[in-house]
Amino acid sequence: MARFQHTVTLAPVPRRLLESCVGTLHDLAEDTRAQDTAAEDAGAEDAADGRSRTGPTFTVLAWDRRRETAVEVVTEDHGPDHRVRLVCALGVRSTARPREAWLTATLRTGGGKGRSHLDGTARLRLDLGGWWQATGGRRRTAAAPLSGTLTHALARATVTAAPQPVPDGRWRVTVRARVRGRFFARPLLAVAALLLRARARRTFAEALDDAAERWNAHVPAWVDAGEAGLRATPTDAVRGAHGPGSSGQGCSGAREAHTAGE
Predict the structure, then answer these.
(1) 3-state secondary structure of 162
(2) Res 2: pLDDT
């Protein structure tokens, strides 16, 4: 098993602004429905290289202000000798006072020799109450607010992220990851961890530093834009979610999707 740890510093997002995201999304969706605004169906596009791309297709899994809001996005890419299907689902519990957010992603490939080894799933869970408690300088809980798993045919990784406040108001987030081989790849990963430990740690740190750099380059402007900018950003997504080719389910449907991802 290989272990990694790295700390980055991020620009903060005000709790009130983040909590307004779900409510604003609901408002935009209801306005769109009231105006009977039709979204253009992306459908399948035939590319010059022989590929057929479908999506993204939005599906509303749950749309309840008091309980849960969840959407699913499916993107497909079919080529002459391969196919790729990416399914992502994002959900938030409660709208007025979000308590938990979750994300699942599944990548499935086929058509080419060895392509199935690219398949994998990712699941993330964010305890929003624990996150705000930690970033506010109050006593932190034993469990990290952000946790997840990435599962591949040959390896499985568990990831956690725990924040703490910086005197200037930013967040210092420590990310930890544990990678364990699966099945016949377990001894191979152990050997690779010994031989490539320094390089792997450097790659892990560089990836997080790059992500933090992009966050710090874009998030402050989004925060400064406030709710007005927030309303302008997801309009197309909302219209796509309620347009032709989309479907909606009740909260029970989202619960089934979430439970299956655990």
Answers:
(1) strand
(2) 84
Q: Rounded to 5 degrees, what are φ and ψ at 114?
A: 80, -5
Instruction: Please provide the size of the chain in residues.
Output: 262
* pLDDT confidence band for 19 (50 / 70 / 90): confident
What does the pLDDT read at residue 196? 67
Q: Which long-range contacts (CB under 8 A, 24 or more apart) does 107-116 make?
A: 108/84, 109/82, 109/83, 109/84, 109/85, 110/82, 110/83, 111/79, 111/81, 111/82, 111/83, 112/81, 112/82, 115/82, 116/153
Burial 53-91 (b: 16+ CB within 10 A, else e): bbbebbbbbbbeeeebbbbbbbebbbeeeebbbbbbbbb
How far does Cα 37 stand from its chain's mean position? 28
Q: Where does residue 11 rank: exposed (0-12), middle (13-18), buried (19+ CB within 10 A)?
A: middle
Residue 196 sits at the vertex; the CA angle it makes with 120 and 114, to the nearest 5 degrees, is 35
In the numeric block, the tokens 């605004």 are attached to 37
Q: Which residues pair with 150 in a beta bridge?
A: 122, 157
Tokens of 61: 């899994």
How far apart CA 238 and CA 119 sit, in angstroms, is 29
What is the pairing mode between strands 120-127 and 52-63? Answer: unpaired
Query: Alpha helix locations (H) across 119-248?
Result: 128-135, 185-195, 197-232, 235-241
pLDDT at position 114, please? 53
Joined together, the tokens standing for residue 177 give 């990851």
Report phi then psi at 144, rounded to 5.
-70, 140
Give 128's contacts (C-beta < 8 A, 6+ positions apart): 98, 99, 100, 101, 145
Strand-pairing partners, residue 83, are 78, 110
